[in-house]
Amino acid sequence: MSEHHQPPCSISFTNEGCAASAAKLAAQLQLPLQPLDSAQLQLVVTPSQLELRLTAVGGPVFIDFTSGKLAHRRRFGGGRGQPLAKALGLKPGYQPHIADFTAGLGRDAFVMATLGCRVTLIEQNPLLYHLLDDALSRAAADPDTADIAAAMQLMHGDACELMPIKPLPEVVYLDPMYPARDKSALVKKEMQLLHQLVGPDHNGDRLLETARRYAAKRVVVKRPKNADYLANQKPTASVSSKNTRYDIYMPLTSG
């Protein structure tokens, strides 16, 4: 996700059993620990999960790799026949190490890991990083998703500054922020919160250049189907679905 001025936020908890965890999180993030307050943005520790709450955009936002849409996609998502898998170049016997430079809510990274890839998720925003960390911990504790979670490594920071990571990825994946086209209440709520946290992408040129410098095989950029090319750079190829386009770029040659 792009660098952005984060709105004021505090840490809270729903019952006394979560108080110690909330205090530890507040110290880690250097944010105030406050009572539940529906009028402000809060990262809330509950007995079951970590949630981001802002009443103005609806109910809480949290990440869950073990149930709901992601569980359904894990079982019935189309395997290597789905557009994302085709764009990544997945083939029988080829399951590359992928670096997701813009992890966000982690959905695409989870699908990649479900398809057998090893995925390094990089997230710059500290609140999203902790939501991802919490979701991966819960996925690791669930027998149905433990193997998938084990293939996902989470890193906090600016991908351009963290590179090079070892080992270098064969594929780099970019999903810069853009307005959601899905009109469902859930996606609308999540996207509103994400836009408040990270704002529009102003880092595309830098991300794409870094990705092409370090990817061994290819870079895949997720865009709305009719959107302009990232950084106005025409891709080598594209794979499209109903609402989404995956643009494929080759690595920059050295020398």
TrEMBL record:
Q: What is its main location?
A: cytoplasm
Enzyme class name? transferase
Record key words, sorted: Cytoplasm, Methyltransferase, rRNA processing, S-adenosyl-L-methionine, Transferase
Gene3D superfamilies found in the cross-reference section: Vaccinia Virus protein VP39 (3.40.50.150)
Which superkingdom is the protein from? Bacteria
Compartments reported by the entry? Cytoplasm
Q: Protein name, please?
A: Ribosomal RNA small subunit methyltransferase J
Identify the gene encoding this protein. Answer: rsmJ
